Amino acid sequence: MTTIDQVSPRSRRTSSQADRRSARHSARPASGRALGGYHLVEALIAGWRPLQRLDVDGFALLRSRGITRRANSAVAVDAPSDEASLLAAVERIEGLLAMTGEQACFRVLDAHGPETLDGLLAARGYDATGHSTLLELPLDRARTAAPHPSAEIRTGALDEDWFEAAWSLAPRDGDDARATMHDILAGTPSVQVLLRSNGNGNGNGNGNGDDVDGGGAPVAVGRAALVEAGRGTAAILNMIAVDPQRRREGLGRAVSQTLLAIAAVQGADLALLEVEQDNAPAAALYQGLGFRPRGSYHYRKQADAPPTPDS
């Protein structure tokens, strides 16, 4: 049986597409704070690196054993803007996935074209789901809050103890989910933060996140992938999870501030994160830390597509 791996990933780019991509590379932003367009999309992909990427007619087709939509969708990188070429690219992606019995899912970013992509997918019967907001925060090492004093901090390669803690707080459904999440998180160097309880099992509820001393079970984790972003480095925050019994104690804020502080020390000048639009508490937390909207995105899934866990 033919598999996607056996199909050549080469894109059928026109000369104008190649020219557009060349221009994007030559006009690299002077700082990650000016991140946009091609560089923004590539940073987001790198922050949650898929197990497989095929470049198809200006789209990055991402596949990771069906675990998380971010790592199992097609996203426009330098896709054609004319309708005929765009339709041909979408049909090619649909055809490639059909070879393995899969249905297509596209991630549509409002700040990055083609402008007609969403309407084209809607007309083909794709359902909209997973509406999320992209937030950004310029990082200034001198003004970043200090790390939490009891935080366990790792940088670089994926730390196995941190992964065990993260999995205990935020497990995923699906076959091979644990191994796949491990491989996704191991794909990019990152800052990893872990907070443990004080060992007595009781939170003080003061909202400051100070009832932790490293002696007990994991109560909060977070990760900031460090990725190239133009001529700078961006910190892509994700995997921020808090024990459900310890919410509203400031642990999410403590983890986030620690991630931002260490990422700035590691040279990041911009932080990005994604939050689902129906998650008002998370949005309020990040806006309180100074994050501001950078844009939004949603997914378009072929009708009757099998569910993919999380985003």
What do these coordinates show?
This protein is an alpha+beta fold and 311 residues long. The protein folds into 2 domains: 11-134 and 297-301, no CATH class; 137-295, Gcn5-related N-acetyltransferase (GNAT) (Aminopeptidase), CATH 3.40.630. It contains 8 helices and 11 strands. It has helices at residues 15-26, 37-47, 83-98, 117-123, 160-169, 177-185, 251-265, 280-288; strands spanning 52-56, 59-63, 74-76, 105-109, 127-138, 152-156, 190-196, 218-229, 232-242, 270-276, 292-301. The chain has an 11-stranded mixed β-sheet, with helices on both faces. Helix 3 (83-98) links the parallel strand 3 and strand 4 (105-109). The longest helix is centred in the first third of the chain and has 16 residues, at 83-98. The chain starts with 14 loop residues before the first helix and ends in a 10-residue tail after the last strand. The model is unreliable at 6-32 (pLDDT under 50).
What structural category characterises the helix and strand content?
alpha+beta
Shape verdict = globular
CA-atom Rg in angstroms: 20 Å
**Main sheet: strands, sense, barrel:** 11 strands, mixed
CATH class (first level) name of the largest domain: Alpha Beta
Low-confidence stretches: 6-32
Number of strands: 11
Strand order of the largest sheet: 1-2-3-4-11-5-10-9-8-7-6
Q: Tally the structural domains.
A: 2
Classify the fold: give the CATH topology of the largest domain: Aminopeptidase
Report how far the terminal alpha carbons are from each other. 30 Å
Just name the CATH architecture of the largest domain.
3-Layer(aba) Sandwich
Query: Which percent range describes the beta-strand content?
Result: 25-35%
| Number of helices in the DSSP assignment | 8
Output the CATH homologous superfamily of the largest domain.
Answer: Gcn5-related N-acetyltransferase (GNAT)
